[in-house]
Amino acid sequence: MEDAELPSGLLEICAVIGPNTEKIREIGKVAQKGIRSLQDLEPEILSVFAPPFALKEETPALANSQSNFHRTPKRRSFRKKKEKSKDNVQTNDTDSAAEDITVPKDIDLNGLPGLCFPGGLHVTLEPIEDHFHFLVFTDVCGNRTYGVVIQFYRSLQVALGQSNGQAFWDFSANTTTKTCDIFVPLAVCVISRYPYYTALKDCLSCLMIQLKSCRDSETEVRIKEFAAKLALIPNPPPGRLNLMFDMEPLHIVFPSREDPDSPIIDLDLHLPFLCFTPKLVLQIMSCILTEQRIVFFSSDWALLTLIAECFMMYLHPMQWQHTFVPILSRQMLDFIMAPTSFLMGCHLDHYEDILKEAEDLILINIDYGTIVCSSINEEDVDIPDVPVEAAELFISRVQTLQFHYDLELSHLSAPVDIASQRMRRRLWQQNLNSEVQEIALQLIVDIFRDVKGHLNYEHRVFNSEEFLKTRTRGDHPFYKKVLDTYTFHSFLKARLNKKIDVFARMELNTSTEVDGHMSLPFDNSRRRDMDRMKRFRPEHMFSKKLVISMPNLLDVGANDVPVRHFSLRKTNQENGLKMPTNTFCVFQLPPIKFPLVSRYVQNYYLEFNSKLSDEMKHLPPENSALLARYYYLRGLVCLMQGRLLNALSDFQNLIKTDIAIFPIDLVKKVLLSLPPSEKQQAERKPELKWLISQVLEKDREGVRPDDRVKKFELPKTHMHLNDFVRRVQESGIVKDKDTICRLFDALTVGHQKQVDPDIFKHFYTYWKETEAEVEENNLPSAVKAFLEKNEFVYKLSSSVKTSYGVGKIAMTQKRLFLLLEGRASCAEIATFRNIEDVKNTTVSLFVLRIPTLRIKSSSRKENFEANLKSECDLWHLMIKEMWAGRKMADDHKDPQYIQEALTNALLMDSVVASLQTSKAIYAASKLSYFDQMKKEVPMMLPITTSETLKHRINPSTGETVAQPVDVLLYTPGQLETSERDDSPKLWCALAEGKVVVFNASTWSVQQHSIRVGNAKLNCMTSIEQNQVWIGSSDSIIYIINTHSMSCNKQLTEHRTELVDIVLDAHAGPRRIAYSCSTDGNVFAWDINTLKVHYKFQLQSQNVTSMRTHDDLLLFCTRDCVLITKKSGLLLQTFELTENLRKIGSTFYCIQLFSDRGQLWASCKGSNEISVFDINNFSQPPQKILLQDCTDITCMLKVKQQIWVGTKGIAQGKSKGKIYVINVETRSVAKELVAHLDIVKSLCSAEDRYVLSGSGKEDGKVAIWKVE
Question: Where is this region: Disordered (predicted)?
Fold first, then answer.
């Protein structure tokens, strides 16, 4: 195994670049004669300083501690050019060896001198002020390193007879030897893996002050010490903790990245807006998104990199995938002739030459704020405009920003020192950067918002053609170019991987909840997208509705969903210094006096560790995010000290404070490099043993993420069922596998069981044409006025004679109506809810028998008749399906049924159009699912069930198959004035660690999927209003932040499957939560610190559930029910009765009625509930038998009732049933036919409603009214 590497500090290399000494000596000789020679020189590397630095007084202990763990990655040698001595004396072996330098392998120093002097190295007669520029290096793997270069000029003095005739640089003002002043340039370049442009610029500025005050012989030592200091500064962890270091005379701040996926921002993001108008900024963004060949020009080398980097920040989370060289030296100008996409930067001096010589380039002049295409025919280079709506919003948002710092200072007092002045400027810039980032991200979201609607996640397909159809025609040139770029391809990978990045979060936060409530076929995504964008204009803002309770479910309809509005945070225009919306904490690093002396370096680490520990002691418990950053830093410090086990313990604590910053790759390297003795120690510590197993085993089991992205293509060969299912799902027509199987049967009527590719093409084309017609909505204005909100016309007949007159029959998702010809008016035929009968008959006219459709409605006395002729059979099928679906939806209180019926009807239409055979109607009848159900089984629910049932929702919407609802949790809303959403929520735990969250005030999906592991979830508990704890069968407790909807903490102390988590409501000032696993281990958690307050082990194993009451804990195990004190002291045991033991039954769930002194317990595989008297242990339990019940799965106490979820017999079939038992009479008050599959979970919502979740055959949640 190769030696592991320590995390890199800020410094990779510090290099000194200047002219060749021999050339300078020649110029010096000429200058002594009074001749001024100002020839150009070739720069070369004079010195290189790179970690690890050879420390004086290196202790054996330190050397041994780092023997297995190196400071830097793989290295290679770099040989400086040797100089000939004045006397041609042969150098000895020691001197020769000194010429070889080892540098990180992925950094190429050969081209560095030219980049440090991109305009050439010129000797001058006058001193020139120090100036900076910035470099970006990219290796073959796409990894970037960053350079900050300072160029400074110093006078050259040649002291003859000193230093054996060697030349030296005099940095002091006083010299004894005076010659003609010649100023020679030097450069110091600091290379880092992190883009700290401002911070490293400030550091180099401090270095220059120190060099001016030191003797020339100390110069190299000072630079080496400077480099060593930077190498000791760690990169701050992601989050809101910045590091501050005293570099004398400045305090340097190193900002952290916002999150692990965000870039470090240490530059002024508003610079492009000072150089270009917002419209030109958009044009440049368009050039980048369409991957043009782009060249920036400026007379200021520094601006080239800063401006280019700003545009890279605007692009986030999308990433530029091509060559990125923001500074080209004179020797590199041939790079612009490369045929592929690139982004480069040149000095303005080369602008005219490149404009004449090169073709098909986008030339951006920073100094003049212009964009030009270098092409013989300017029409050959097309820069498409950013989509109009998104561009307008971007410009309006930019106009609200304040870019001029001086205007902010006009009424403020002057700062008394440089530190306060710099802090004030930094805070202003930090706030402005955040606003610019948000506006740029809003632009990206507005451009690509609807991409996810055209993705198939299961097969990783993006239907680009259908996505284009939802864009306005004027935006097509932009999208056609963007969709074929590597940048967009990489963006698609992240979307298909369901990555929760800033794009996903903003897209969710600026979406209306109606999007996830009921997705009807052909929902006009483009029109909805534009309406949404208009709504988020500042002038269209609405105040947020505060919802803190459940709705009246009688008033919730499928198309009457309240729209959730989000406000666009507009820049505060009031005078005064803008403070950052989210303030950062700053940690002051200890000083480093002598960074090249081992003893002082060790003292630095000791003080660093001590300061972090002190900060952690005084940190309030609720600030776990900051605590996690301290753990991260202390872990790094421990690694540098060689204390590997301590480092692993600190990294282990990140799992329960903020797992998002857990450095898994670093931890893996540490574990693999542990010496045998330390590995044995780690195995003896439970938490480290778990860490070792998780990290290393997952590494062995690790499956590389699927990075494929396919474009949808029509099939070219015959398709069997499995291939057909995949193709239909990829097309986005329908995802449900059962529906696709019925479609397969329809398209293969009269053929072998395989679908012809031509038939599929005709079917797909007709479906998409119908979709386009629905979206275009080309109906007379009178008809549009006739339609209700969110009502669309999905099917139009030919002009036919009807009993209402001549016209076209129109079908929406709600009703049928007639568009009368000759006048712009409509006549309603019937709503699907009011239809009583539909018949397909004929009428005699002359010698003809004309097929006629007859509809009987409860809202009209007379029947409606239409001579639909050849269309009659199809309309008959479609209307019957819609009628049956509407009735099913009403009877079962499930609006999704009407959506499914509409899909079936539209599939029938497409099947008939694609087959065009005599068997087309018979084939379409294969899709009559609800009409067939109406014939085969009774659709009406029992009266008691129908009266109690209020609504149904489907957490598996969008999935190919239904998922079981294993656990349910309701969390009430909170009345707050903040902008965050605090509506009541329903949490649904599905299979494989998936959690779906509904807004319980609208029953719309709020969070489609939160992933917490991959195992079955067993329990959920609301903790402290802002957390949900989820116990998994993988032994981990996952903690979800209810505001960010992300899981960033885990508790890993359990070793077996979690069964229950309960909150102690009587714990006093210390908030305690108890968790229990199947092996009988019980942990009492301090909620504030997430530390184990205490723990105990139950005598019994196979625990199935846990409850709390006052100072007692109740545990249900297979053989008994245990009652203990909260300390773990056993008080009482209720054992299984003899008759149940004989049939092999086991206790499964319990409920306690403390006011009645009753303990209710059920057994697995039994229809019997035992009621124990907890005040009289000797009394045998009373039995309650549940008729037609085969298995009890869950129990819930609501008021003075027990709701029992079971698997039972109803209407002669096995179904999920709920028994409502009156506690006082101990009799069944209600028997509810709840689900098609077993009832797996129950939860209460404010004791007003009970919610039940079902098994995978049904996969739905039912909402019941509590009497």
Answer: 61-97
**Cα 204 to Cα 176: distance, rounded to the nearest angstrom:** 29
Q: pLDDT exceeding 90 applies to what percent of the chain? A: 52
Domain boundary among 1130, 1157, 1185: 1185
Q: Which strand (E) or helix (H) includes residue 912?
A: helix 896-915
Say how far apart CA 1085 and CA 1078 lie, in whole Å.
Answer: 18
CA distance 148 to 704: 36
Q: Is residue 1122 part of a domain?
A: yes
b/e map of 868-901 (b: 16 or more CB within 10 Å)?
A: beebbbbbbbbbbbbbbbbbbbbbbbbbbbbbbb
**SS3 state at 381:** coil
CB atoms within 10 A of CB 220: 14
Judged on CB neighbours under 10 Å (0-12, 13-18, 19+), 822 is exposed
Based on the fold, state whether residues 1052 and 1178 are members of the same structural domain: yes
- Whole domain around residue 987: which residue ranges? 962-969+980-998+1188-1267
Q: Cα separation of 745 and 1073, whole Å?
A: 54
Nearest to 108 by CA among 66, 72, 147, 82: 147
Output the average pLDDT for the chain. 84
Q: Kindly report, residue by residue over 1170-1197, the tens digit of the pLDDT.
A: 888 877 767 788 889 999 898 999 999 9
Q: What is the pLDDT, as a whole number, of residue 292?
A: 94
Compute CA 1069 distance to the chain's CA centroid, rounded to the nearest angstrom. 36
Q: Which residues of 1017-1028 are buried (b: 16+ CB within 10 A; e: fewer)?
A: bbbbbbbeebbb
CA distance 290 to 799: 47
CATH code for position 1172: 2.130.10.10
Q: From residue 686, give the alpha-carbon distance in Å to each of 387, 645, 680, 862, 1078.
A: 56, 13, 12, 80, 18
Query: How many domains does the chain divide into?
Result: 6
End-to-end CA distance of the chain: 68
Residue 97 within a domain: yes
Residues 175 and 97 in one domain: yes
Same domain, 1176 and 1215: no
Is 1266 found in the same domain as 1121? no
Query: Are 757 and 885 in a shared domain?
Result: yes
Closest CA to 605 of 578, 634, 582, 648: 634
Residue 102 has pLDDT above 80, yes or no: no
Q: Are residues 1147 and 1169 in the same domain?
A: yes
Long-range contacts of the stretch 646-651 (C-beta < 8 A, 24+): 648/682, 648/688, 648/691, 649/685, 649/687, 649/688, 651/691
Specify if 975 maps to a domain.
no
Q: Is the pTM of this model over 0.70?
A: yes
**pLDDT digits over 528-538, tens only?**
454 544 433 33
pLDDT reported for residue 752? 79
Same domain for 1163 and 1209: no
- Residues 187 and 223: their CA atoms lie apart, in Å, by 12
Residues 6+ apart with CB under 8 A from 270: 401, 403, 432, 433, 436
Domain check: are 860 and 879 in the same one?
yes
Helix ranges (DSSP H) in 399-475: 405-409, 418-448, 464-469
- Does 1005 fall in a domain? no
> Which range among 165-174, 418-427, 1026-1035, 1078-1087 shows the weakest confidence by mean pLDDT?
165-174
Pairing of strands 710-711, 461-462: parallel
